[in-house]
Amino acid sequence: MSAPDSVSAVVLRQLQIYWRLARLDRPIGIWLLMWPMLWGLWVAGTGQPDQQVLIVFLLGAIVTRSAGCIVNDIADRKLDADVRRTRDRPLASGQVGVIEALALFIIFGFVAIGLVSTQNTLTQLLAGGGALLMVAYPFMKRFISVPQFILGVAFAWAIPMAFAAQTGEIPIVAWHLFAITAVWAVIYDTMYAMCDREDDLTAGIKSTAILFGDTDRFVIGALQLFMLLALTMLGTRLSLGPWYYAAIPAVAIFMLYQQHLIRDRDPALCFRAFLNNQWIGLVVFVGLALHYLYASA
């Protein structure tokens, strides 16, 4: 192998490691952040969101999630080394140093600042709050038993931002969607935490999966029921039509399937249940999109 080829291979390998550090090889987090953001934009824009706002928010979902994963791995680099599922992450395994990770985080941060600078002042202020939540969340699992609630608020923060960018205000319906998204995040992140419950107990990491204990499936089920009721109430509040209401039983079917997957608390199946939530986000969005499409036809 020639010297230039060798250098290219090293650079490519390092870029692949950075890609993994930003979790771009696992886009589930982008989908879980993006779908509620799209719900908010479609409701705020009554099915016709501003194209520039839409592009900025789509890119923002990718950048924000990537930055969040990096700061999470910086904070958890020692804890991740003690958890079987995460011990091969770039920071935990020593493939990347903290300084490199911080530099990559700063790059994503500047991109995020550039994106939000194109939006109105209210959206920019909300983005500052969202950034604080993103940085604070990784440390919460050391101090509180319900870090998933902090994650829920962080992921739901895209809703008021979407309304602020689209309409310049944050109406009551935005907070209705905020509550739905926050509860949904607690649901799927508890499933995620169920994958690592034994390792987390050993490492001293707190989670709702540990807090709920043997009642985890019951609590998840109660939260799923709350989400279904809240989605139904959203349809009533917005006078949505049959396309939207058809999405709600589909969401219920996915939730029943997730309950089936987590029934024995098998880590691999709990992870599958977590991943399955991306389809719930898609189904709700399709219901909203079809309602506005045919309502305006």
Helix-strand blueprint:
Elements: H1 3-21, H2 28-44, H3 51-75, H4 77-80, H5 98-116, H6 121-140, H7 147-156, H8 158-167, H9 172-194, H10 197-203, H11 208-212, H12 216-238, H13 242-261, H14 267-295
Helix pairs in contact: 2-3, 2-8, 2-9, 2-14, 3-5, 3-6, 6-7, 6-8, 7-9, 8-9, 9-12, 9-14, 12-13, 13-14
Summarize the structure in short.
The protein is mainly α and 297 residues long. 78% of the residues lie in helices and 0% in strands.
Verbal overview:
There is one protein chain. This protein has 297 residues and is mainly α. The chain has a single domain, classed as Orthogonal Bundle (Tetracycline Repressor, domain 2). The protein has 14 helices and no strands. It is globular, with a radius of gyration of 20 Å. The relative contact order is 0.12. The model has no long low-confidence stretch (mean pLDDT 93).
